[in-house]
Amino acid sequence: MATTTSAPPTYRTIAELLEGLGDIPPDRVRFRPYPGTATEADITSIQAHEGRSCELVDGVLVEKPMGLRESLLAVALAGLLREFVIPRNLGLISGEAGTMKLFDGLVRIPDVAYVSWDRFPSGRIPTEPIPRLTPDLAVEVLSKSNTEREMSRKRREYFESGVGLVWMIDPENRTVRVYTSPVAFTTLDETATLDGGDVLPGFTLPLRNLFSELDRRA
What we know:
Structural class: alpha+beta
Radius of gyration: 17 Å
Oligomer: single chain
Strand content: 25-35%
């Protein structure tokens, strides 16, 4: 498993910065601290004082968008995964605030993640707020401000760090892309059944059951 990344790039303009981060909207980039100088401590400070979740990329704090629909799907999926993982004592399931340091200088927050016990050296939950941790499964629920280039970069980073499986959930189209590498994927619609593959063998989920969360009413 890789443990380091190359030195972060030096951006000359705001345009280069946004392009390097995946053509994300500028309102997701924090300018305090100044881009290129942010640290993990800034992530925890902003979370504590503002209640906002940020990822750390190239020394830049990037706000992580999460609307109600995305959160509903993430919570529902996390609950279903937990029902499978916990009784078998396979590991842990984290949610949309679960910060993880994939490499030095790179902190990501999967909307849902499964981490097997094998990935905890002590066999216990880390006590630090941003542990050095790579999930077996990383799940991203797409928001409107997510770009294809941003998510492509995330997938590459996930797999380089040792993630075995990535699910990208699209609430608008009600589809899930199942990635087994940064570029190899299968697209499932809501009539299909999602499974855990080699990462979570035995786990299955009819996607109609997941996306029905968006149709609930009084």
